Structure formats: structure tokens, C-alpha cells
């Protein structure tokens, strides 16, 4: 009987002064409360994504071509001449497509006219 009373006292003490109820998430936000949203530099971010994708493309193909070359896969001179097109063609095409996409989306931007 004494243990039951002690447990009920502990429950009363801990439930009355708990900082947050058990099994719940905190309600505090990260960062300043009245801050404006952080602006995003889309051009720089997309350029960095293009760099990462291009490096991954080139590294993957170089590894594949090294393995093919070790197995004696390059027998004609034309095969070696196709390597730069394979390595750099798609990344350059993707960069040009990105520039064209940016140009197209800038066409939707409303021009600010000077006040009259």
C-alpha cells in the first residue's frame, strides 16, 4: 500500500511540472520567428547540379571505357574518336538546354515600367 501511494505521488509531481507531455514533438521552430524566407539563387544552384551530373556522367563513362579498353575493345581508330563526343556531348547539350529553359522562363517575367 505504501508503494502505491508513492507511485501516485511521483505521477502527480512529474505530470504537474513536466516541460512537455510524453511522446510529443517540440513546438519550437528553428530559426528566428519574424524572419523573411531565405531567397534562393536558382541559377547558381542549378549550375552546381549540372556540374555534379556532368562529373558523374564523365566518370561513369571513363570507368566503362577503361574496362572496355583493357579487354581490347578499341580496334578501329574511329572508336577512339567517338569518345570525346560520348563524354562531353550530353553534358554540353544539357547545359545549352538549361540556358534555353532559363531564357524561356525569363520571357514570363513582367517587365517593370518606369513610373510616369
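-> sequence recovered:
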Amino acid at each position: 500500500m505504501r508503494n502505491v501511494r508513492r507511485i501516485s505521488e511521483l505521477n502527480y509531481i512529474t505530470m504537474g511540472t513536466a516541460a512537455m507531455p510524453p511522446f510529443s514533438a517540440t513546438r519550437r521552430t528553428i530559426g528566428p520567428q519574424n524572419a523573411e524566407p531565405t531567397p534562393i539563387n536558382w541559377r547558381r544552384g542549378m549550375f552546381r547540379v549540372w556540374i555534379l551530373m556532368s562529373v558523374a556522367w564523365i566518370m561513369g563513362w571513363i570507368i566503362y571505357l577503361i574496362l572496355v579498353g583493357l579487354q581490347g575493345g578499341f580496334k578501329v581508330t574511329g572508336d577512339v574518336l567517338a569518345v570525346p563526343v560520348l563524354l562531353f556531348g550530353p553534358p554540353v547539350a544539357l547545359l545549352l538546354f538549361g540556358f534555353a529553359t532559363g531564357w524561356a522562363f525569363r520571357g514570363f517575367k513582367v517587365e517593370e515600367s518606369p513610373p510616369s
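The chain has a mean pLDDT of 80.
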